[in-house]
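Take a look at the protein record below with the fold in mind.
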Amino acid sequence: MTLSGSAASPVASVRKDKPIAKLVVATSIGNALEWYDIAVYGYFAVYIAKAFFPNSDPTISLLLTLGTFALSFITRPLGGLVLGMYADRRGRKASLMISILLMTLGTLAIAFMPSYETIGILAPIAVLVARLVQGFSAGGEFGSSTAFLVEHAPERRGFIASWQFASQGLASLFASAFGVGLTLWMAPDNLQAWGWRIPFLFGALVGPAGLYIRNQLKDATAPPAEKAVSPIAEVLLNQKMRVLLGIGALAVSTAINYLILYMPTYVVKTLHLPASVGFIATFAGAIVVTVLTPFAGLVSDRIGRTTHMITINVLLLLSIFPAFLLLTRIPTPVIIIAAVFWIATLKSLYYGPLAALMSELLPAATRATGLGLGYNIGVMVFGGMGPITMAWLGGFAVIGDLAPGYYLTLICVLSLAALLEIRRTGANL
């Protein structure tokens, strides 16, 4: 297998007259809204559990909430395929407009959803449906938006595509700010009764602004393949290894993402500290992701994707378990914040080149479809299943509160193997 040639060639129809800042904002706003919705649901899982999944055992209630969170990721690969193929056939912009509209409707539904106490079993079912809609829409977001970005600035792919993940940091920043503010300034009863809905309402307001901004863009969609072959068929028949390697490279970063997402719950349920400690830690981590990710993308444009990412992966491998050992043995707010800050720093440096690397594994004609499929399978398996997997592993006495450390170390090894294979088969990456 060779990962060069057309997979890394620039698109002939790239427009160079659009300011990069406008492209980044318009394209990344949907990805930011997607991650904001995910972050808010994860950060406020304890409150959502009581509102929609009440149970006499709080652990079962939380597992049901996280299980619904995980199930919503099932529709992501489907969204990645359907909206990715639509983007490859009809244009990136057309797909991006659909995805942000569906995402906004799902967020709005959760914000106004009556509780279990009001409508009974319909409440958790409706929450699941809303999350499935969000999962489908989010599935089409990454592939289309990443393809859009790299096809507008092929000579700066690492830098411009890195804003996909930097926007996630900004979204986490807002979600964490809501968590810190609401847990510090609202009475617990009010926060449980209605306060947790405020972040969802804010997310719903972002959607219309995103639709307007995206509608102003002109598309630079790559020309369709010369043969009238379905992008899905082409990806599944001839590009499976490229997609699998992309999933492997993504695995550790998305696992860490969802570990940080799980941190407020981990702090309360496992370390028995105030929720505000977890939110402050995630807020600090979000600042790091927002600031460092574009820098890492820029560096990768100069030294190469795999050289940069393999180095950071090794640092992660050496850091993850000691960080959690320290965090669980000395669970003070300072240690927790420092541990999250360090892990977020390494994640940011790894994140920077990732979107460009994944896009370069695929030719332009199937880029949105292949990215959508690979990214969303990786996020579903290693991300969406992460919080419930760590919560479940934590129930074993031999693993206990070190479950995240064991989990992430294994996935880090998997990503390192994928990066080494990418480097071996495509040295230009």
Summary: The first helix runs from residue 20 to 43.
